[in-house]
Amino acid sequence: MLRLSFIRLLALLLAASFGAAFPQDALKKGCSLFKYRFLEPHEMKAMQKMRDHFGSIMLQSDRRCNTRLFHRKWNLEELSVPDRMMLVKAELDLVIDMLGLLNDPSFTETHQRPLAFLTQAQEDLRVCMATEAPSHQPSKKLRHWLQKLQIAKKTETTGCAEASAILHVFQVLDNLQCAALREQCT
């Protein structure tokens, strides 16, 4: 009986010392964009399936859009890493908002996995921005684009914003990979 109590006490002491050596909050709050440097093939297939399905729905519904939400006169490589993270967060916010608005029952199953993936990326990006650049102010170039995005979100029809967000989802993923690289991306 004494031996069993000693083993339990030893186990508790070891658990406490490991807990102190590796605080759980520090592990949870660290920047974890590394996993987005190389996206899993099954995630890419899910995105492609969603985009293809949405494309066929668009053809049937005859949505005619002239939106340019994701077009810029400059390249992502021209931005600092904190600016890249801000840009990708804004793009992810838009895509996730638009996926959340879709109400076509045939689309529900197709966009569940991409929505979960993008939401996780959004959360990871938010944590990185809070830990690495909490008071970063966007450059003039990025600030101008963010203002144009806000205006477009208010003036574009929901259908056109949905179409633009889904059709540009691979651009958003490329930008996420670039932000995860933390160096010049090509």
Helix-strand layout with pairing:
Elements: H1 2-21, H2 24-29, H3 41-61, H4 81-101, H5 105-132, H6 140-155, H7 158-167, H8 169-181
Helix pairs in contact: 3-5, 4-5, 4-7, 4-8
Q: Can you characterise this structure?
A:
- With 186 residues, this protein is an all-alpha fold.
- It has a domain of 127 residues: Growth Hormone, Chain: A (Up-down Bundle), CATH 1.20.1250.60.
- Helices cover 73% and strands 0% of the residues.
- It contains eight helices and no strands.
- The chain is globular and about 40 Å long.
- 23% of the residues are buried.
Task: Look at the structure and give the CATH class of the domain at 43-58 and 75-185.
Answer: Mainly Alpha
Largest sheet, if any?
none
In total, the number of strands is 0
| CA-based gyration radius | 21 Å
- What would CATH call the homologous superfamily of the domain at 43-58 and 75-185? Interferon lambda
- Poorly predicted spans: 9-29
CATH architecture of the domain at 43-58 and 75-185: Up-down Bundle
Helix content: over 70%
List the secondary-structure elements in sequence, H or E. Answer: HHHHHHHH
| Span between termini | 65 Å
Strand content: under 5%
The general outline is: globular
CATH topology label of the domain at 43-58 and 75-185: Growth Hormone, Chain: A
Structural class computed from helices and strand pairing: mainly alpha
Mean pLDDT: 78
Annotation field: number of helices? 8
Protein name: IFNL3 protein
GO biological process, one term: cell surface receptor signaling pathway via JAK-STAT
Family: Belongs to the lambda interferon family.
Signal peptide: 1-21
